[in-house]
Amino acid sequence: MKQALQLKVSQQLTLTPQLQQSIKLLQLSTLDLQAEVERFLLDNPLLERGDEPRDGESASESQDSSTPDEPADSRDDSVGELMDWGAGSRAQGGGDDYDPMLNVPCPVSLREHLLAQLGEIALPRRDEAIVRLLIEELDDDGYLQSSLDELASHLPLELLLDSDELAVGLALLQQFDPAGVGARTLAESLQLQLQRLPAAEPGHALALAIVRQHLALLGGRDYAKLKKLLGCTDAELRAAQALIARLNPHPATGFHHGDVHYVIPDISVRKLKGRWVAELNRSAVPRLRVNQLYERMLADSRGQGGEMSARLQEARWLVKNIQQRFDTILKVAEAIVERQQLFFEQGEVAMRPLILRDIAEELGLHESTVSRSTSQKYLLCSRGLFELKYFFGSSLETESGDECSATAIKAHIRGMIEGENRAKPLSDSAIADALAKQGIQVARRTVAKYREAMQIPAVNLRKAL
Fold it and tell me: How far apart are CA 352 and CA 345, in angstroms?
């Protein structure tokens, strides 16, 4: 066997700790970034907030020195200019100690709302306990999913509760607000809501008969069979249908069901000299800096800082990587806004086809970098709040050879359906034909796919009397 030494040259990408941190920070949402910054501030003594005064410096001087230079233009989108929140507002709220958040109502859950009503009525302790138990069994929509027999069988034997007692408690719970709460089925919930309305309401008796016995026929738009079974006219059925349409199939709508997820816009878009431009939301950028006192002390130690020198390097990396994160997001947002000018003017129907590669090639970035820069990053404009990745999507070729984005096609489909004659709604084939007349060639199954993605019912379910 012959042994030999060979030299082999190869290239290998090594992710340095600084690069790893840069990638991690870029993929975080701005809200998660704030939590990460708080963790670094607690862990690294060499980091401090940029709005804190340095040693020997007043707070006002610190604010002046840490605030980035802004062009001295008069912006018409300043919150301070739009809302007159001056000294008068603070005085009205109670001086410098006034906290405006105290005036924000705390979200109330369905459970809290029902328990508050239970506390306002005088009941024997056993009956109150039964109603309280039933409240705990309700789902987020206000329905009781378990049967009373099932509930009774799962309760401890020592309670000696049967389904009859539970039925009495449920009847009481179903009198609570919101109307329809405590129902076991959709039909029962609608019936409870109808019973709260005046009997003199047009179509009231017919609506009750429909929700009790023929709700499936109404859902299937089988109006001919409904009229035959109920012996009513078109006008009477229309009145009953209109009354049922006013009811809420989800009685607990509007109640707080858990943690509220907040979104902080990273980018704002405004019109400047006739064009839409992207601007960074400066309030979303963490104001960090390296503590200069520690930095000078470590510089004087001439490399003897040990672990503190490593912390200094870590602090410098973090400040630099956070700045780089927002620079990248702004750069990507500017490219998106420039390409989607018509969207900000006309809305979804004017959305241009755009893929990650388009922006990556324009900016000289990797597609994964563009993906991280648009996921969980939000843009605020006059049309609402949008995730940056919303502006990307597939496209279809038009008759003229141009391309039309899937978002624009969906907007066209939605617009046609919203404007259709409800007595003769458009089929998917009819919508495809109408799009073809506009030069957009799409198959019927593509229309069906987009319609279903927008959760729009099929033609037979959209038909009105």
Answer: 12
Q: Which two tokens stand for residue 359?
A: 């922006």
What pLDDT does 6 receive?
A: 66
Task: Give the 3-state secondary structure of residue 397.
Answer: strand
For residues 19 and 366, what is the distance between their CA atoms, to the nearest angstrom? Answer: 14
Domain ranges of the chain: 108-259, 267-391, 395-462
Half-sphere exposure of 457 (CA within 13 A, CB side): 11
Residues of the chain with pLDDT under 50: 56, 58-104
**Residues near 374 by beta carbon (within 8 Å), at least 6 away in sequence:** 332, 336, 356, 387, 388, 389, 391, 392
pLDDT number for residue 82: 29
To 10 degrees, what angle do helices 17-27 and 307-339 make? 40
Burial 141-164 (b: 16+ CB within 10 A, else e): bbbbeeebeebbeeeeeeeebeee
- Looking at the whole model, is its pTM more than 0.70? no
391 close to 375: Cβ distance less than 8 angstroms: no
Q: CATH says 395-462 is which class?
A: mainly alpha
Q: What pLDDT sits at residue 70?
A: 43
pLDDT (0 to 100) of residue 257: 60
User: Which amino acid is it at 41?
Assistant: L
Structure tokens at 222: 């089988």
pLDDT score for 64:
43
Q: How many residues comprise the chain?
A: 465
Q: How far apart are CA 49 and CA 42, in angstroms?
A: 11
